[in-house]
Amino acid sequence: MGAGMAGKEDLQTGAGGAGHGRRLFWDRVVFCPLWLGFSLACFLLFYWQSIERGGMYASDMLAYMLEMDGLESGYDFPYPLFFRLGGLFRPWLSAPLAISLALGLLQSGAVLALKAFWGPRLWAVLSGERQSPLPLPWAALAVNLLLMAPFVLSMLYVPGRQLPGLLGRYLGVWSPNPFHNGTYMAARPFAIAAFFAFCALWPEYERRWRWRPALVFGGFLFLATMTKPSFTFVFVPLAGLAMSWRLLRSGWRQWRPALALGLCFIPTFLALLYQFFGVFAPVEGVDRGLDFGFLTAWGQTCGNVPLAIVLAAAFPLAVYGLFWRELGRGGVFAWGGAFGLMGLLMMALLYEKGFRLIHMNFSWGYMYGLFFVFVAAIDKLWEKTWQWWNERRPGRMAALTLLWALLSAHVLLGLLYARGIWQGGAWH
Vertex 368, ends 366 and 370: CA angle to 5°? Predict the structure, then answer.
């Protein structure tokens, strides 16, 4: 039997058979080196950012270390989980090592979270009715490269050139992977878990209420909020709107499961209140708070927002443009698109007043939206690739080629962008 047929047979074997064991073996053989290498590279970057290495590696790591040690950092950080984790290592390690280890563990945990929640879905696509021609080792490589892609891809840019209306590669365009911002990275494992837990809960919470998965979702959402609330700022209003629409459409008949699911948000609401009053408490002579304004904040760093959106999300825009009819099927594809759109709207319409205007803190929620919309788009492309593979229609093959080329461009430029930052280059 040829290698291709053996791999195909392995993928078709039931979950309890020998094929499952071979699949698990190859999955781990491929995943573990990728995960460990990525984790080590991130830890080294975070450590170099902490010690600055001669003025290079610009980041907020110095402020994080001061916050971890209970000293005045000059910033408001009313989300203590990341700093408390670093504090656990502080009695035995220097401040740079303690904060870098804490951040490295959380970033590594984000990969594990995506592996746990999304990895089975990627494998399931290869075990459906339309089988892939990939031998098992190559299938494991493809699945795990796709799994790692969201953590390294970036916005599109032209190396060495500044495009019209933009101040740089990153500023005003944004990336799903802002390697210079540790608190964004720190919250990501909990955000990933909360997002996928909610996607799994959503289709059935009205028909079959289960407290355990609901509390798991609520717990991860709370942890994400207490690490950095940027994900929560986008997710909570999106989920609230969706739940309200469902409740109204049912004529209020489903108020019991809606109330039960709403209770899972209470710890997060309390955390948000605590954070809001910590950051926006009135200070005499200081203009603070939130306000509405079309591109008021975004326009500070970008004179060409449409181009910036295309550069940040060319691949998912193409995927959603091609498969928009499948949004009605729900799942990760629908929720990823909705999350990305909500993050975009909040970035375009909301801003913080006063001296915080130039900080553009709603960009972090937009970047979370970019991360999840890329995951959802990759998921859809992976599914459609194997659905269309045996048909070989010229139009469909051309569409797949274009989409894979766009994804490859985001990944390759992301690796180039990350390499520059890893070597001490500018992030903007």
Answer: 70
Check residues 32 and 354 and name the one with the higher pLDDT: 32
Task: Please name the residue that has the structure tokens 């996607």.
Answer: 199
Task: Name the packing angle between helices 61-68 and 81-89 (round to 10°).
Answer: 70
Please determine, for residue 127, whether its predicted confidence score (pLDDT) is greater than 70: yes
The span from the CA of 182 to the CA of 64, in Å, is 8
Helix (H) / strand (E) element for 62: namely helix 61-68
Strand partners, 290: 352
Residue 313: CB partners within 8 Å, gap ≥ 6?
A: 340, 370, 373, 374
* Reported pTM: 0.92
- State the CB neighbour count (10 A cutoff) for residue 290: 12
Confidence at residue 17, expressed as pLDDT on a 0 to 100 scale: 53
The span from the CA of 346 to the CA of 290, in Å, is 11
Give residue 361's pLDDT band: very low, low, confident or very high (50, 70, 90).
Answer: confident
Instruction: Output the average pLDDT for the chain.
Output: 88
Distance in angstroms (rounded) separating the CA atoms of residues 180 and 334: 30
Helix axis angle, 182-201 to 95-125, nearest 10°: 30
Find tokens 């990823």 and name the residue: 336
- Give the DSSP per-residue string, 124-173: HHTTSSS-----HHHHHHHHHHHHHGGGT------TT---TTBSSSSTTT
**Token couple for 86:** 């670093």
List all residues 6 or more positions away from 304 whose beta carbon is below 8 Å from its beta carbon.
163, 164, 165, 166
